[in-house]
Amino acid sequence: MRGEETQVTLSMPEFNIIAAVAYREFGLKIIPEKMMMVQSRLRHRLRALNLPDFDAYSRMLDTPQGIDERRFLVSALTTNVSHFHREPHHFDLLVKALAPELKQRIQAKERIRIWSAGCSNGQEPYSIAMRLLQVEPNLTQTDFRILATDIDPKVISFATEGAYGSRLLSGVPDKDRRQFFKEKPNHSIVSDELRKYVTFRELNLLATWPMQHQFDAIFCRNVVIYFDVETQEKLWPRFNASLAKRGVFFLGHSERIALPGKCGFKSIGPTAYEKCVAATGIPSTKIRGQNGTS
Length: 294
Hints:
Blueprint: H1 2-5, H2 12-26, H3 35-49, H4 54-61, H5 67-77, H6 88-107, E1 111-117, H7 123-135, E2 143-150, H8 153-161, E3 163-164, H9 174-180, E4 181-183, E5 188-190, H10 192-195, E6 198-202, E7 215-220, H11 229-242, E8 243-251, E9 265-269, E10 272-275
Parallel strand pairs: 1-2, 1-7, 2-6, 7-8
Antiparallel strand pairs: 3-5, 4-5, 8-10, 9-10
Helix pairs in contact: 2-4, 3-5
């Protein structure tokens, strides 16, 4: 069976259907040069679904019956690579942005909210929580929460469990491991004290955003690189609308807002922006017709 499966090939018409579904549902722009990658990553789905070829798969995918399979599709076509304290200058900028008013807000018991959009395996939101709790331990005395979302249900499940092997813990200082993790024989688990500040949810960024409150900071790093320019430009005003006054917005190292002022942002550092005015354009609802999960 496995030998036969490896001979199943993906034709261009089948690729076009899969690429069209990926773009329509998730905003993923897959160019024809990625055809062999798509073929390799989706062969296991044929076996899982007991389908004979990619023709049957592509036809099933683009029907109402293929809704559940589309979640597996996005998991297969995206790469979840992350590590703790990635791009540390962003965490420095976050502290710098929040520090001037942080103590007063804690004393007033004000809400402090941060969104990790595209949280992958969870290292980013846990890193945010660790850094802020180290800078200001009294955050425990106020309403401090981090929302962590991703389109991939597999990584949401992994991040919620919070169990990391030594390779995934690279970059975490020993003192942080002692403070924020429970050591097990072959891995470490995020402590209950850290875990309580982070909530994980499945969310498609192109769908409706169910959040009712604005955020002091939004991290959306190494996510929009999968989107074309048109989709990115529709997302910028939505992120702006979801930020509180002078909130900060972080992108990945290879991502940029071409005209930040037009979208209500100003640059404050490498791939880091501050909300300066409310952007005009699409409100914080869905871009196309996708269904999202809060």
